[in-house]
Structures are given as structure tokens and as C-alpha cells.
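FORM 7B: Structural annotation worksheet

SECTION A. Query
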Amino acid sequence: MEINGCIEIPPEMTMDEFTDAFIELIESKGWYFGGGFNEIIDGYYSNPDGTKGGSVIDD
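SECTION B. Predicted structure
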């Protein structure tokens, strides 16, 4: 199964907090996740160094 979508989280939640909770949920069901995560802020991808990347609309 492949999932492609966006999840809106509270602004005070970090990407690390979200990914930890997501993986914990998946593993608690005995499931596995293979893939990655992209942080999006105000419609733009966030680069690993924290700078603004390309627009999500351009992809």
C-alpha cells in the first residue's frame, strides 16, 4: 500500500515529534513503514538545513 498526502500538525509540534509518534503507531499495529518524510512550511518544502526549498505546487 502506498500513501501520498499531507498531515497538518499543531505549529508547536516538531517534525521529530511527529515522525516518532507516526512510527510508534505503525509499529504498535505490527506494521512496517518504508519511505520518507518531507516537511512543508507555508507551501514550501523545508531543506535539511532549515532553508526554504521549492514550492509544493511546482512538483
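SECTION C. Observations
DSSP finds one helix and three strands in the chain. The chain has a mean pLDDT of 92.

SECTION D. Sign-off
Analyst initials: ____
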